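sanity check this fold:
=====
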Amino acid sequence: RNKQDTCKYDFGVDVPAPLLSSMKCEYVDDGGTAIINGNYLISDPSSPLAVYFPGNIQGTVTSVSLHQIAVTVPSGIVGSGPIQVKSLYGTTRSTFYFRDDRNMIINFDDLTAAGGWRTGVLDNANPNPVSGKFVRFTGALAGKAGTTWNEDGFSFDYWPAKQSKPDVTLYPDGDFSKAYIKFECNVLAAWKSCALQMIFTPYSTYDGNSYIADASVPRGLWIPWKETGSYTTDGWITVALPLSDFIYTGEGKVCTNKLTADMLRGLTFFVWNGGVDGADCSPNICIDNIRIVPTL
């Protein structure tokens, strides 16, 4: 056949069931708008997209695109659990949980950093909370990496031994290397320097802070302003970081030691250093519901 000929052939197209990757924020009040991210989110006129929350309670979908759904959270939801999205092409149950409370470490209500040198500056307003009290990190940060050290304004220490809690792991669900630390965050004023350092500590660690600057102690670093130079959020978001990325020193280099199971007892959050120069700023960073969950 020459190149001008046409060969006709009938073929079918298999459209996958919805793919659910994350929520903008896993904690949304009844009546609020939840944003679900994913793919193949298709609402057909003959079979409109439907979203079901824990308890099989249906929400009201207000907008749909191929990669995102906006849905009004219904009333009557009890507890936490996966959501389900149903389209003409199938139904998918999320691996993430709505209002996730699994392996909660600190929620700043009944689970706090009491007993640590810094319990964190707690608040429950401005912004509206996602669930009770939250910790607020605020103050002046210098742009030069490593210049600012302000534990009072930008840290808390959870030391279970100081609360007379038992020596048990923070992640009892199996292989922690495949788990994520998650929390809700709302950044109201521009964050332009320093990293959020997340440091797990053994049960024996308390009444001291030398481990924070110790280059032999691995930790996770969150630097959301790094690419653009400045970072704020549009309301509360859910942040998820794999524990497999807890491989850094406080200066942002690769640590010679690895995170080990015996370290998953205490936890320190501290906005400091990170090894990346930024700009002078006075951020307002709010954090709540710190937990460790299985692979997303």
Notes: The first helix runs from residue 151 to 154. The chain has a mean pLDDT of 95. The first strand starts at residue 19 and ends at 23.
